[in-house]
Amino acid sequence: STLPAVAEELLREIKMAFQETSQVPDDLLLGLKFIFGPCAVPALDLVDQRSVTRVRSPSGRILYQVLGSSGKLYTCYSSCHFCTCPAFGFSVLQKSESLLCKHILAVYLSQAMGACQELAVSEEQLTNILLAEEEDEG
């Protein structure tokens, strides 16, 4: 599953602008708010707080953990646009009101701005992270 082309293009433009000037121009910030709505500003706050961690195992499997504003850690999968937070389940999956939640948007913005924390874990640690998420849900 992919984001709409306009969203993909906006994230590409943000990445290019940030690489050149180390900031995101106002027009792209407005575009972010237009496309992603109310989750744009909170997502930028998460990026500013360096709340996004890229977790990588030796086999190359990657997931992201985002420390939410509530202090809870959410697991995000950028490859399939999925987050374990309740807002994702409700606004994105059930109601189709949003493209994604603030946590996944923060992951994409952190990637674009090179603002991800990095964490190398063993395969066993990665498995434990994934299993812990399943227990939280069930």
UniProtKB/TrEMBL annotation:
Keyword list, A-Z: Metal-binding, Zinc, Zinc-finger
Entries under InterPro entries matching the protein: Znf_SWIM
Domain SWIM-type: 74-112
GO molecular function: zinc ion binding
Entry's Gene Ontology BP terms: double-strand break repair via homologous recombination
PANTHER family: ZINC FINGER SWIM DOMAIN-CONTAINING PROTEIN 7
Protein name: ZSWM7 protein
